[in-house]
Design goal:
- The chain is an alpha+beta fold.
- Helix 5 runs parallel beside helix 6, helix 6 packs antiparallel against helix 7 and helix 7 packs parallel to helix 11.
- It has four domains: 77 residues; 116 residues, 2-Layer Sandwich (Beta-Lactamase); 89 residues, Helix Hairpins (Orthogonal Bundle); 173 residues, Heat Shock Protein 90, CATH 3.30.565.10.
- It contains eleven helices and twelve strands.
- The strands form three sheets. A five-stranded antiparallel β-sheet has the order 2-1-5-4-3.
- The protein is 52% helix and 15% strand.
Length: 488
């Protein structure tokens, strides 16, 4: 438990909260220690005393005679005893006239120093014994300077903290800590729970069970869950592709191998001894070996495309010329099936960059599929035109169409059904469309398929359309090439 992410997150938040409380408490204590509230109160008291003495006592305004000075000394002593403040008077020339504590305290600083220090927010000075005094100055009607001073008070911080602030302060801190720890636990749980779900889903996936993770928690955790779901989908598709490969390839290898083995055995046993039988056996063995050779070539081509070692030639090419050349190759098959081919190719199509031989293979695969699934007397349509930064090539047939639940899988390698277009010709292993997709994507384009709908057909389907989109050189296309890795 101590090593779990939830505990570490909770402990981290708890330490941060504790540190914040400590820093706040220390700052509050420093504020109390340096808070001049008590000093301001004392200065205000001294200022009140000075104002009262200047406004209401005539003795301060009659200091020119000897009697007046004697009366001032007695007045200063009595006032000091009554208000507990040091009373002193200076002449404008800086001469000290009276000081109520001249006998018990070190002498006051010169008037010049007192006037200078008065500019500070709280006027103070230190006497010769380094004792701190607070003071205020006030001018009398006779022009003399009255000084009212008192020792700087010592702030009883610990006493104030203990008697008035400690108890409520501790209660607030305890409540804040409790709430913070609960919130820290909730936040830690909010972050760790989605990660735990991802961990459990990973273990399930290792056991062969795939489940989608809900996108919950912080944004980063949601992104991780989304990436995991995509990875799980890719792994699932890869496993499904492997199962299809094992099923289809084993079947398609078994069929020619059985034929080769059977006719070779017939030759060895002498069952095919006459020249005509030997010729037929050799022909079938040759055809089946060629079929296996094509299968191996397709697998090698896919392996090269997967590894990136495609060796694509990047040279200017005219897509119209390539399409016309492919169409001419199928003239005999069109005549044999009594089918027609309608082409609508824009002669002004710009030059593209790519590998002409491999693109010709793509269109050969698609056109051969279209002819294989078009009934006798039917029509195949091929068109090429510009479409917003793309060259778009469409190949449409009048076949039975593709089941809707299989449209999303027909470009998967090794995928075959009785009605899918994955089988390029009898005896294929479901690699024709997969290779076509890899070649198109290697050129930065895309390939897709959909059915044509018609109300005249009982099922509403009158054929399929394959669309190849190739980017123009230098064109910025949104939603372009998906990497091949995302389709593996």
């Amino acid at each position: 438990m101590l090593s779990s992410l939830r505990f570490r997150l909770w402990l981290t938040y708890a330490l941060i909260v504790a540190l914040a409380v400590i820093v706040a408490g220390a700052a509050f204590l420093v504020y109390l220690l340096r808070n001049p509230v008590v000093e301001r109160r004392e200065v205000q008291r001294l200022r009140t005393i000075a104002n009262i003495l200047v406004q209401r006592n005539p003795i301060l305004n009659n200091l020119d005679t000897r009697l007046g000075r004697q009366n001032l000394d007695q007045f200063a002593l009595r006032t000091d005893q009554n208000v507990n403040a040091r009373i002193a008077v200076f002449s404008l020339a800086g001469e000290l006239i009276t000081d109520s504590r001249h006998a018990s305290q070190p002498p006051l600083p010169d008037l010049e120093i007192l006037l200078k220090n008065q500019s500070t927010p709280i006027a103070s000075f230190r006497d010769s014994a380094q004792k701190a005094w607070l003071y205020v100055l006030s001018r009398t009607d006779s022009g003399h300077i009255l000084v009212v001073a008192a020792p700087r008070p010592r702030t009883p911080v610990l006493t104030i903290l203990r008697d008035e602030l400690l108890s409520p302060f501790l209660r607030v801190i305890l409540i804040a800590l409790l709430v913070s720890l609960v919130m820290a636990f909730w936040i830690a749980d909010w972050i760790s729970k989605p990660l735990q779900r991802i961990t459990e889903a990973t273990r399930s996936m290792a056991g062969g069970e795939f489940e989608s993770i809900p996108l919950q928690g912080p944004g980063e955790v949601k992104a991780l869950a989304q990436a995991f779901n995509e990875m799980a989908g890719q792994v699932q598709a890869s496993q499904r592709s492997q199962r299809d490969f094992i099923a289809n390839v084993s079947h398609d290898l078994k069929t020619p191998l059985t034929s080769i083995q059977g006719f070779a055995q017939a030759v060895l046993d002498g069952a095919a001894s006459d020249p005509q039988s030997l010729q037929r056996a050799a022909s079938i063995i040759y055809e089946e070996a060629g079929r296996m050779h094509r299968m191996v070539q397709d697998l090698l081509e896919l392996a090269r495309l997967d590894s990136g070692a495609t060796g694509l030639e990047q040279e200017p090419l005219q897509i119209a010329v390539i399409l016309q050349s492919v169409i001419e190759q199928f003239a005999p098959q069109l005549a044999q099936q009594q089918a027609t081919l309608s082409s609508h190719i824009d002669p002004a199509l710009p030059l593209l960059q790519g590998d002409a031989e491999r693109l010709a293979r793509v269109f050969t695969n698609l056109l051969e599929n279209a002819l294989n699934y078009t009934p006798p007397g039917g029509q195949v349509e091929i068109s090429a035109l510009l479409a917003a930064g793309w060259v778009e090539i469409r190949i449409a047939d009048q076949g039975p169409g593709i089941p809707e639940d299989e449209l999303g899988r027909i470009f998967e390698r090794f995928y075959q059904t009785d009605k899918s277009r994955a089988r390029r010709q009898p005896g294929g292993v479901g690699l024709g469309l997969a290779i076509a997709r890899e070649i198109v994507q290697a050129h930065g384009g895309s390939i897709s398929a959909h059915n044509r709908q018609s109300t005249a057909s009982p099922e509403g389907v009158t054929g399929s359309v394959f669309v190849v989109r190739l980017p123009l050189p230098g064109a910025e296309n949104s939603g372009t090439t998906k990497r091949r890795e995302t389709n593996r």
